[in-house]
Write a structure and sequence with these properties.
Blueprint: H1 2-24, H2 32-55, H3 63-83, H4 85-88, H5 92-103, H6 107-148, H7 155-163, H8 166-180, H9 189-210, H10 220-245, H11 249-259, H12 266-273, H13 278-308
Helix pairs in contact: 1-6, 1-9, 1-13, 2-6, 2-8, 2-9, 3-5, 3-6, 3-10, 3-11, 5-6, 5-10, 5-13, 6-8, 6-9, 6-11, 10-11, 10-13, 12-13
Length: 309
Amino acid sequence: MTGAVLLALLPIVVLIGLGALLRHRRFLDDRFWPQAERLCYYVLVPCLFFHGLATARLEALPVGELALTLVLSTVAVAVLVVALRPLLGVEGPAFTSVFQGSVRFNNYVGVTLATGLFGAKGLALAAICNAAIVPTVNILCVLVFARHGSARLTGRGILRQVATNPLVLGSFGGIAFQALGLGIPAGLEPALRALGAAALPLGLLCIGAALEFRAARHWVRPVVSSSAMKFLAMPAVTVLVAAPLGLDGPALTTALLFQALPTASSAYVMARQLGGDAPLMAGITATQTVLAIAVLPLVLVGLDAIVRL
């Protein structure tokens, strides 16, 4: 399994590296990358989630157990981060970046990994993961921004941020189609599938282009704190929650992979929009993206060891 993860990680690393190279060489105008990220966030990824959930064969998958494991473990770690805030040495907007780095995850990497490992079943499991975690993480992050960000949000503002999130809308739209037994119209389904497929390579290129390591050197403590929560606490809590729920096999592997993913570049966008510490968020994102290359295989090695006990 570890070898399979490494093989699945290889194209991800290549695409992220290519994105960084293209940005460094100025092959494309700098204005291209924010627009490409916007296209991914508002159009391509929602299409990917909607199509994946609307067409997935969920009857043989542990939907309830997987979703409950992800939601409970995410909320538990979020509560832990808030409880430890006095010990983290950061306040206000900087804390929002540490919080996002602890709970937010990179959808592009997760879907690519799950599909590479388990094929169509992996895509369905990834869609369930996104349907469960995307709303949970966004609600938690918006609440933290409302309390600690420099741009204070009202209750109506919090609801608007969650209700208009394109990833939430895409996930819930696919769930609705699945629950109602609706089929995507024949002429529309290939278009949605193609748009969703475009999200993965373009999203990974954007991650590479957004990497900024110079900022990471200035905030060692918050970067280390958020990475410890993301790569140590989150997988450990996920295993503890999954055990009594009976989650195992590919579903447990996918859950662990998603919970050990680095934070997404969209965290930087949210930090800018809602009054967070955007430079610190960029440093956390860059550091975690590189660390994940080593951490994800180690997470599966740990899972194999636990299963054999």
